[in-house]
Amino acid sequence: MSDKEVLLTIRDLRIEGRADEEWLEIVKGVDLTLHKGEVLGLIGESGAGKSTIGLAAMGFARDGCRISGGTIDFDGIDLRNAGETTRRGLRGKRIAYVAQSAAASFNPAHKLIDQYAEGPVQHGVMSRGEANSDAVELYAKMQLPNPDEIGFRYPHQVSGGQLQRAMTAMAMACRPDLIIFDEPTTALDVTTQIEVLSAIRDIVEQFDTAAIYITHDLAVVAQMADKIKVLLKGEEVEEADTRTMLNAPTQDYTKSLWAVRSHARAEQPSVPAGTTPVVSVKGVTAGYGTLDVLKNINFDIHARRTVAVVGESGSGKSTTARVITGLLPPRQGEILFNGSTLPPDYRRRTKDQLRQAQMIYQMADTALNPKQKLRELIGRPAQMYLGLSGKALEERVRNLLDLIELEPDNYIDRLPSELSGGQKQRIGIARALAAEPQFIICDEVTSALDQLVAEGILKLLDKLQAEFNLAYMFITHDLATVKSIADEVVVMKEGVVVEQGPKSEMFQPPHDPYTELLLSSVPEMDPDWLDKLLEERAAGGAGASVEGAGN
Amino acid sequence: MGFLTGLLWLAVAIIAAMASGWLFRTAAVAVTPRGISKELKTAPLTASFGMFMILCYLFVAFFAPIIAPFSETEVVGPEFLFPGDNPEFLLGTDNLGRDMLSRMIYAARNTVGIAFVTTALAFIIGSVLGLLAAIVGGWLDQLLSRTVDVLMAIPALIFALLLLTIVGTSIINMIIVIALIDSTRVFRLARAVAMNIVVMDYVEAAKLRGEGLWRLITREILPNAMAPLVAEFGLRFCFVFLTISALSFLGLGIQPPTADWGAMVKDTATMITFGNVTPLLPAAAIALLTVSVNFVVDWQLHRASGLKE
Fold it and tell me: Out of A53, A258, A401, B234, which could bridge A408 as a Cys pair, Cβ 3.0 to 4.6 Å?
């Protein structure tokens, strides 16, 4: 690789961001060298400065940020000192950018092909007619269905995975020398992710384009990158060739990132026959309007057990949770709690019934009232259900903060905005615990968090389950999480339970074809994983016969 | 030459205003406790000037009987004195020979006080109903929203005139009528803001916890809807203020002999043809307060929306 010509050189890059009327350094002297046709993976937790560096490679700083030091040299052009016209000439033509959320980045008012043609026509690379026929060719290369027609659809008429591929095709329009991929698959389901990854990799190889691939998912970067740079809080931790990095990381931080999926809960003995489950979902059919989202769902959750409900977006996982909590009364079927039927509508449930089933949300940001202090956020359920007040209430809140491993004196009077993402999720847990429930629904609680932080949350949930004999329903799309926390697994697809059973059985063949597809789609740290999988699928294995939810 | 002098005076006025704003901000930061002074430091000069002027108005309104040289209604001299004609009557006298300065001071009390009460009432009615419509939804939302649509279809001033002729003119009636009409605007805003908040997970969590309607409104939704509502309060206050002045000018507002800026403009309006600036003085008082309130509101809106320069 290194014998090729150097395309991009960044030396001692420093970027400052404005917060509270002060400039704070968020990227602290990062060096980066990229050769032609090379793919560099940038990984790190949120706040590590990955995206900021990616944008700086285009000579761009977001609103409220400024490039304060260092040099950015792109193929002999000094991007820091080049004029706006020079930079504008480069962007889209020689350097392209693929954003995380294609759905938010496309203009919903224009057809895909019009947006595709805008770049090449503006830069005078192609005429409109050439651009159109070129688009069809690239759409075919990206394996989009009906490449002749898909360009004439509006962004809302194609699926998320297809949109992400259309965006990559758009970035390719002027055949740039460098593409920056900013977490292009993070918002996608695992089965869709595979398609996008293989499409991106093919096209980058075919055109010998250099790329910076930004992600927080190690397994993904292992498939895509030639070399990997690990970042932490705006500083480089280490950089190495992908295989070297995966096999022999030298820094402690990198090792901890690599080891993060090590948590596995102890095997629980099987529940004796005849025990009444804490929660039992019996023959539930439910939906919105005339549409049935759930069809005849049955499963039980026992005390001190975790049932993981797995499926892609649109499979009805969260709707199941809404039925159990009473937000969506089912059309048929019922929810039993300790053997007795719960009223279908939450407004008809007694205070005690409400207390027994608590919920932890995916987005802690929207699940905690931003204007209430932790004292009130956590204290309110205890005050309401257990009638605590004054000293006793304060004592209880402090206990709960201790339980979730936050120092009470330091945190009790903070607002949610003064906490990190992981801490907010811990507050969500404390709020659920404050009601002293028997059953907690965890709705994608770790999917918005960094891996190290998510690991901490899973361990905490595990510890609390043992301590308070809790039953968990764990909704997730991430099979790695399932492996580490579940006792039983329920696989859902399009509102139907495809397969269910104890975890040990679920991860052993034979599988239902859909389960097989899901399981095989989870990226592994092996850099050859994607090649092997694609070969296997071409031969008809690994769930090739079923369609993922994205298409 | 006269134009240039005018520009010069304008520049002097602006510089003086900014200087007083700066002085006020420095003084306020020094005397207030840490939490508030931190906020005050972020205030631009325009907002500081606005706050300073509002405080001046409040001071004048509270201590009117002490500050004013004469009584509100007493005839103390000859009619239509120009400002400066007689050092005893600093701003001249009106059409009945009452002291202009004293009446301006008392009017601050009447007009500002009534405008404040009216706006507050409009906000209580409008925001409670708006939040209720957003939470409960369904037929209650339909009923309230359509009623408000009907009320908003009638031009506000004409509607106010109509209602006031029906119920008769008194200060209480005027407050209620204007508050009702203005609450429709507040309702719209409160409902729109609350609609975005009721879909948040924390509201769902509170509902699942079994919280009652009142607590949902006061603890979960209202604190998060406060910023746009406060900003709207400032703007509404100005509108109410102008409505009252307009009604007084038309003779249906605050009744004589009670001093009121709008009515004072009306009473002395003819004097402008003789080159007397007297009718402009109460108008200037209205303008200055409106501008000041808007400066402060702009600053608050800016903070609430998180906009950058």
Answer: A401
Alpha-carbon distances, residue A63 vs A17, A48, A66, A67, B302 (angstroms) = 9, 18, 8, 11, 17
The answer to whether residue A326 neighbours chain B at the CB level (below 8 Å) is yes
Residue with tokens 């090729």: A4
Residue of A nearest to B219 (CA): A372
Dihedral of CA A397/A398/A399/A401: which sign? positive
Shortest alpha-carbon distance between residue A99 and chain B (Å): 24
Cα radius of gyration (chain B): 23
DSSP characters for A152-204? Answer: TS-GGGS-HHHHHHHHHHHHHTT--SEEEEESTTTTS-HHHHHHHHHHHHHHH
Nearest 5°: phi and psi at B277? -85, 0
CA A318 to chain centre: 16
What is the distance in angstroms between the Cα of A331 and the nearest Cα belonging to chain B? 20
Cβ-Cβ contacts under 8 Å for B187 (sequence gap 6 or more): B125, B126, B127, B129, B130, B133, B144, B148
Both tokens assigned to B38: 């931190």
**What token pair was written down for A376?**
């009130």
Residue-wise DSSP of chain B: -HHHHHHHHHHHHHHHHHHHHHHHHHHHHHHS-HHHHHHHHT--HHHHHHHHHHHHHHHHHHTHHHH-SS-SS-B-S-SSPPTTSBTTBTT-B-TTSBBHHHHHHHHIIIIIHHHHHHHHHHHHHHHHHHHHHHHH-HHHHHHHHHHHHHHHHS-HHHHHHHHHHHH---HHHHHHHHHHHHHHHHHHHHHHHHHHHHTSHHHHHHHHHT--HHHIIIIIIHHHHHHHHHHHHHHHHHHHHHHHHHHHHTTSSSPTTS--HHHHHHHHGGGGGGT--TTHHHHHHHHHHHHHHHHHHHHHHHHHHT---
Least confident of A54-58, A60-64, A106-110, B203-207: A60-64
A209-236 burial string, b = 16+ CB within 10 Å, else e? bbbbbbbbbbbbbbbbbbbbbbbbebeb
Q: What SS3 state is found at A442?
A: strand
**Residues of A (453-472) whose Cβ lies below 8 Å from B:** none
Dihedrals φ, ψ of A74, to 5°?
-110, 105
**By three-state DSSP, how is residue A138 classified?**
helix
Q: Identity (one letter) of the amino acid at A483?
A: K
Q: Which of A45-59, A447-461, B131-145 has the highest mean pLDDT?
A: B131-145
Name the 3-class secondary structure at A47: coil
Residue with token string 């809960």: A265
**Choice between A356 and B84, residue whose per-residue pLDDT is larger:** A356
CA distances from B139 to B126, B142, B143, B203 (A): 18, 5, 6, 21
Angstrom distance (rounded) from CA B50 to CA A376: 36
Name the more confident of A258 and A277.
A277
**Mean of the pLDDT values across residues B59-76?**
82
Indicate if the alpha-carbon torsion angle A31, A34, A35, A36 is positive or negative.
negative
CA distance A260 to A76: 41
* Tokens, residue B214: 């009142």
Query: Do B202 and A21 lie within an 8 Å CB cutoff?
Result: no
**Does the pTM exceed 0.80?**
no
Cβ–Cβ pairs < 8 A, chains A and B: 47
Whether B210 sits inside 8 A of A368 (CB atoms) is no
DSSP annotation of A294: E
Q: Using a CB-CB distance cutoff of 8 angstroms, which residues of chain A are in contact with residue B302?
A: none
Structure confidence at residue A551 (pLDDT): 41
Backbone angles phi, psi at B96, to 5 degrees: -110, 0
